[in-house]
Write a structure and sequence with these properties.
It is a single chain. Helices cover 74% and strands 0% of the residues. By secondary structure, it is mainly alpha-helical.
Length: 441
């Protein structure tokens, strides 16, 4: 374990470039693969890339707001106090890593956007409490919660195929969540990871090279609140409005009313938009005045730069993968030697490979779903398990894909090379319970 951990950490530290350069290299790789193994010509691949470049603008904005609104809410005195109090449960580096992993896993089971922000912010508070912990492993542990998200309540694949009118309904009908999220194989994988992954991440501490205590400048806080004296000095009508608690209370209550309406009308629908909405309006209320809120927004926006500039590149990669048929070829190659028994595990592996190139759960299902479901119907494999295999493959290789790590890294103040070596180890470990779930249950 120690040799493997140090090997992957050393290789990543030496050879893995910044996340933006990783996206550029991946773009060139997919372009060359498309030209080489599909019928698309060089200029066609360029066209697919350029035409797809802006297809993730809405999603990129959503993820930027995940970071900004999460920072806004976490910067309020109430939330900072709660996270600080919860972090007191960690007394040693090992306890710190286990606690952060468990909290991140639970949060990602509820919602992946919620989990990304909560895991990273909680890790920062725990690091302040236990400064002797390896900060890189602590943040990798916070990110490791993403390995479980597609088997949880925000999993796009199981929720989609349980919804009337989904695009594969004619082939497989409506598959209820009792056969996907609450199936024996999915519950086994989720429960096993909840128990074992905190222990495994703790074990990573033994294999890592010691780095000494954390540089406090990584999460040094700027002054966030005006003093009461400064507020009382507001003399112009504009300044009084900026420091008006009544305005924040009024708009904040409007937001809370809509949140209540949303859950009454839709049940426990915790999608990324409502998560951002909750974070935003709770932040408005808890910061108490528009001025304090806006000052925090200014600091939080700095964390979203990597997302803003990199997501269009991944949209371009997705455009090349889909339009050239490269993603189809990868999926069909795995299907070509699968049997009724092995199709779910090969589906999982193919989904993992495609996800490393096209990291988008809903988009990946639209591409891979028809191929894998058709194969399952032809050879008599379990369609619910096959669908969940796509979901778990999508979640699994998030561990080695910087796309989803960007919000976590922005909050933590680290680079992708700081955590990727440990994420590779997490990827290898989590393969075991996932494979057991699909092969034996």
């Amino acid at each position: 374990m120690k040799v493997l951990t140090r090997f992957f950490d050393g290789v990543v530290q030496r050879y893995l470039p910044d996340a933006f350069l990783f996206a550029i290299i991946l773009t060139i790789l997919v372009y060359l693969l498309g030209v080489t193994i599909t019928s698309s010509g060089p200029m066609e691949m360029i066209t697919y890339w350029g035409e797809g470049f802006w297809d993730l603008l809405e999603f990129g904005m959503q993820m930027s707001l995940v970071v900004v609104t999460g920072y806004i809410l976490a910067s309020t005195p109430v939330v900072k106090g709660f996270l600080a109090k919860l972090s007191r449960a960690a007394k040693t580096p090992g306890q710190a890593v286990m606690l952060v992993t468990f909290v991140a896993l639970l949060a990602c089971l509820i919602n992946y956007g919620f989990g990304l922000v909560v895991g990273a912010l909680f890790a920062v508070h725990v690091a302040k409490r236990v400064p002797a912990v390896d900060y890189r492993i602590l943040i990798a542990s916070a990110y490791s919660g993403m390995v479980i998200w597609h088997g949880g309540f925000s999993g796009s694949v199981p929720l989609l195929i349980a919804t009337p009118g989904h695009f594969l309904e004619d082939a497989i009908g409506i598959i209820p969540v009792t056969e996907t999220l609450f199936s024996s194989f999915n519950l086994f994988i989720v429960i096993t990871l909840l128990i074992t992954l905190p222990l495994f991440n703790r074990y990573l501490l033994k294999g890592a090279d010691p780095i000494g205590e954390i540089d406090p400048s990584l999460w040094k806080e700027e002054s966030e609140e005006e003093t009461e004296a400064e507020v009382h000095q507001s003399v112009t009508p504009a300044e009084r409005l900026e420091n008006s608690q009544a305005l924040s209370l009024l708009i904040g209550m409007m937001g809370l009313l809509f949140i209540g309406y949303h859950f009454v009308a839709n049940g426990f629908d915790l999608n990324i938009n409502i998560v951002n909405f909750i974070f935003l309006f709770l932040g408005l209320l808890l910061h108490r005045t528009p001025r304090r809120f806006l000052d925090t927004v200014g600091r939080g926006v700095k964390n979203a730069g990597g997302i803003i500039i990199q997501f269009p590149f991944y949209a371009g990669i997705m455009g090349m993968m889909v339009a050239s048929g490269l993603s189809d070829k990868i999926s069909l190659w795995f299907v070509s030697f699968a049997t009724e028994y092995t199709l779910p595990i090969f589906t999982f592996l193919s989904a993992g490979l495609v996800n490393a190139l096209v990291p988008s759960g809903g988009g990946q299902w639209a591409v891979q779903g028809p191929i894998m479901i058709q194969a399952a119907l032809e050879i008599g494999a379990d369609t619910a398990k096959t669908a969940m295999a796509v979901a778990w493959g999508d979640a699994w290789t998030n561990m080695i894909q910087p796309f989803w790590a960007l919000p976590v890294l922005a909050i933590a103040g680290l680079k992708i090379r700081d955590i990727m070596g440990f994420c590779v180890m997490i990827l290898l470990f989590t393969f075991v319970p996932i494979a057991i779930g699909f092969l034996l249950l």
